[in-house]
Amino acid sequence: MSYSITVNGAVHEVDVDGDTPLLWVIRDTLGLTGTKFGCGIAECGACTVHVDGEAMQSCQIAVEDAVGMNITTIEGLLGDQRFQALQEAWIAEQAPQCGYCQSGMLMAAATLLANNPTPSDDDIADAMINICRCGTYNRVHAAIRRAAAA
Amino acid sequence: MDFTISRRALLQGSGAAAAGLIVGFNLGGPAAAGDGRLNTWVVVAPDGTVRILIGYSEMGQGIVTSLPQVIADEMEADFDRVEVLFAPAGVEFANPVFNMQGTGGSTTTRGSFEQMRKAGAMARDLLEQAAAARWFRPPALVRAKNGRLHDQVTGATLDFGEVALAASRFTPRPDYPLKTPSEWRYIGRAMDRLDIPAKVSGKAVFGIDVKVPNMLVATLAHCPSFGGTLKSVDPAPAMAVRGVRHVVPLDDAVVVVADGYWPAKKGLEALSPEWDLGAFADGSSAAVLAEFREALDEDGATASAEGDVEGALGAAAKTVEAIYEAPYLAHATMEPMNATAWVTEDRATVWTPTQGQGPLTMFGAQALGLDPSRITVHTTFLGGGFGRRFELDFSLKAMLTSRAVGAPVKLIWSREEDMRRDYYRPGAVARMTMGLDGDGMPTGFSAKLVCSSIMSRVFPQMVRDGIDNSSVEGISELPYALPARRIDYVMRNTDIPVGFWRSVGNSQNGWFAEAFIDEAATAAGKDAYAFRMALLQNAPRHARVLKTAAEAAGWGKADDGRHQGIALVESFGSIVAEVVELSVTDDKEIVLHKITVAADSGQVVDPRNFEAQLQSAIVYGLTAAFYGEIRVENGGVVEGNFDSYRMMKLEQMPAIVTRLIPDGTSAMGGAGEIATPPITPVLTNALFAATGERIRDLPLIRHGYDLGRARA
């Protein structure tokens, strides 16, 4: 079965089973590997993408349900001015370690700041539910604060 | 082929050829004179770019920056023009500590610091000689400075790139000098990590991101019990799934190979493999740990001893005794196990997030019946390692699968398979006894440890007289003045596989020792900090670290309702003390307010990255102390994903106050693991202060506690 999905502004016809998670269409079919596989059960946030501007875990969206959605991966945000400010804040705080969870962290932080440009500590804690095994949490927190202040 | 060439391009998404596509990089053989390669690690391009080859694995510990920092410093390179490349596996990249290529044991920076300094100094010497020849000067009159060479007579300058090719034809002078520490420009300073631009752009290539032309994607299921094997599998139900290409039986697993991960997973779920569950089919961690407890009454091998312990304990005014038990733990790296392999009749190439390039070359050759020279190992970024990726299973299984199907295969494990086929932090039991005199001071200390030996499987030659140091480290040598002591070890190897888990034996033994010292302090009626300080009179470095932590934390000055715990553990040549301040709600929710960590690691290459390692190790330890427990039932692991093997999150993290105590006179210690051991005892010690409850087995959720949102 073929599905027409919109990823990073481009329409793609993908010939996969309808139950294929968006995550694997993005990674295996479209070859965009910035979005990561961590758990497959929406516990870790490594696969976070933007669906119509909101952060969502792409391992839980079947491709047949993604038709008509406007999907953005981290690759689609590169060059965006606001996203670049977030990246610069991440660099200034030297947030990543192994880096595997960081795409998902950045995607979650981007929608947080888009919806709430001056988040409180509790707002940040509420929004940032991504798992990081390197424990970069405090620097991620600091990077969001820095980006919000910029 | 590099990931630093243009940070701007990376962040904007242009320059796709940059972007961490280091996989597959190969210099094409040994150094050839005249190619700008100055030694094993350093190549200078005609445009002046200094390319540094790293033979170690980057799993978050920052070595793709800290090692170049050392080389560039001695070389007088301009750090803005340094690029890093992952080297292909090769004997020239052996870890000097292991004598083979591999990353672990907190050895990278301290093990190769001098080697990297010499590599940089040697490269500088060659460049200076080449410039001297160009100017008809003795080399002593040429000075390298920040990427350029200066003629001391005329003031003329040349860029490194202008003499790079010529320099690679010179031979280093035998007496090329190293800088003195006061001349260092990058060593000891916070430098921006070179891998971060790629990691904030989704462009860093981890193992799971590898793409090879005509590559298939596979996933697997292991036998549900440890030690079991695959009897048979009917491939038909999987082959009926669209996109499935092959079903590959392995000794203890079945692999489904498909066009993508999802069809492979669906194919796997359609199969009904028949397993031979083996001798451990009814095995459980509960039975194993109960057996360990019984083994406490056996005589063990003595790991360390001093004085007459029995006499000292018998003559004590008071004795304290306790039994502690630590659970099995999984590594749960963020990136599940995976590797990509392409094996043909006479050659094997593997792209893998491995910590063990050296052993992989050797055992890969053995598994495939090829000469080691026919094996090529490309190291990708590692999405966490923590010791798990020192194992070879995920790489070897990809190689065997590729050989079976005759195509390049990326084999990705599900999170559940990753969790259930780990090499776990050993479950362990300890009984400790302390004698106290009339003044509450220790007269003697004895400990008996029971757990499985990691080295018996990995490096059996390192087990001597019944002692595996990785089973007893963290308690066999303590800095405290204990007039008599004996630490014994009973080795019990079971079917539950055990391996290196961040800080290894120190992770459980550091907890045992420091929680028990706290019990002894309580029995002696003494303050936990003062009790330790009184026992550190002959250990000034340790005393200084503990005092620094206590002062920075405001020991004894917590607000009402808040409670502190303190601990001190030396591991990997570094001394670390930590203090936690927490409170406990009526419904057993623990709120962390502040963590303080002080460390003496000798010379530190990059203080900011070092601090990040301390924080990271603390989160890793806290997560395990609160949630970590791998239970085995019916021969296999119960926990499968992050819903059952829980992880600490951002909201729970308090501020961490860090104090580095630079000690220029001591040997360099490790960085990546050293802050994990103290965090468990500070937590249980603070919990005792708060509740009067001594936690002697983990995790804390087993006792009804949970971790709430942090509050300053």
Write the layout of secondary structure elements.
The complex is a heterodimer of chains A (150) and B (712).
Chain A: E1 2-7, E2 10-15, H1 22-29, E3 48-51, E4 54-57, H2 63-66, E5 70-72, H3 74-77, H4 81-92, H5 102-115, H6 121-127, H7 137-149
Parallel strand pairs in A: 1-5
Antiparallel strand pairs in A: 1-2, 3-4, 3-5
Helix pairs in contact in A: 4-7
Chain B: H1 7-12, E1 42-44, E2 50-54, H2 63-75, E3 82-86, H3 108-135, E4 142-145, E5 148-151, E6 157-159, H4 160-167, H5 196-199, E7 216-222, E8 229-232, H6 236-239, E9 244-249, E10 253-258, H7 261-270, E11 274-276, H8 285-295, E12 301-306, H9 309-314, E13 318-326, E14 338-343, E15 348-352, H10 357-368, E16 375-379, H11 393-405, E17 409-412, H12 415-420, E18 428-436, E19 442-451, H13 455-458, H14 469-472, E20 485-491, H15 505-524, H16 528-534, H17 540-553, E21 563-571, E22 574-584, E23 589-600, H18 607-627, E24 632-633, E25 636-637, E26 655-660, H19 676-691, E27 706-707
Parallel strand pairs in B: 2-3, 7-17, 15-16, 19-20, 23-26, 23-27
Antiparallel strand pairs in B: 1-2, 4-5, 5-6, 7-10, 8-11, 9-10, 12-20, 13-18, 14-15, 14-17, 18-19, 21-22, 22-23, 24-25
Helix pairs in contact in B: 2-3, 3-4, 10-11, 15-19, 18-19
What features would you describe in this structure?
The complex is a heterodimer of chains A (about 150) and B (about 700). Chain A is α+β, with helices and mostly antiparallel strands and about 150 residues long. Chain A folds into 2 domains: about 1-75, Beta-grasp domain (Ubiquitin-like (UB roll), Roll); about 80-150, [2Fe-2S]-binding domain (DNA polymerase, domain 1). Helix content of chain A is about 40%, strand content about 15%. Chain A has 7 helices and 5 strands; from the N terminus they run E-E-H-E-E-H-E-H-H-H-H-H. In chain A, strands 2-1-5-3-4 form a 5-stranded mixed beta sheet, sandwiched between helices. In chain A, a hairpin with a 2-residue loop joins strand 3 and strand 4 (about 55). Chain A is globular, with a radius of gyration of 15 Å. The relative contact order of chain A is 0.16. The model of chain A has no long low-confidence stretch (mean pLDDT about 100). By secondary structure, chain B is an alpha+beta fold. Chain B folds into 3 domains: about 5-200, Aldehyde oxidase/xanthine dehydrogenase, molybdopterin binding domain (Aldehyde Oxidoreductase, domain 4), CATH 3.30.365; about 205-280 and about 335-410, Aldehyde Oxidoreductase, domain 4; about 285-330 and about 425-705, Aldehyde Oxidoreductase, domain 4 (2-Layer Sandwich), CATH 3.30.365. Chain B contains 19 helices and 27 strands. In chain B, strands 9-10-7-17-14-15-16 form a 7-stranded mixed beta sheet. In chain B, strand 5 and strand 6 form a beta hairpin. The longest helix of chain B is centred in the first third of the chain and has 28 residues, at about 110-135. Chain B is globular, with a radius of gyration of 27 Å.
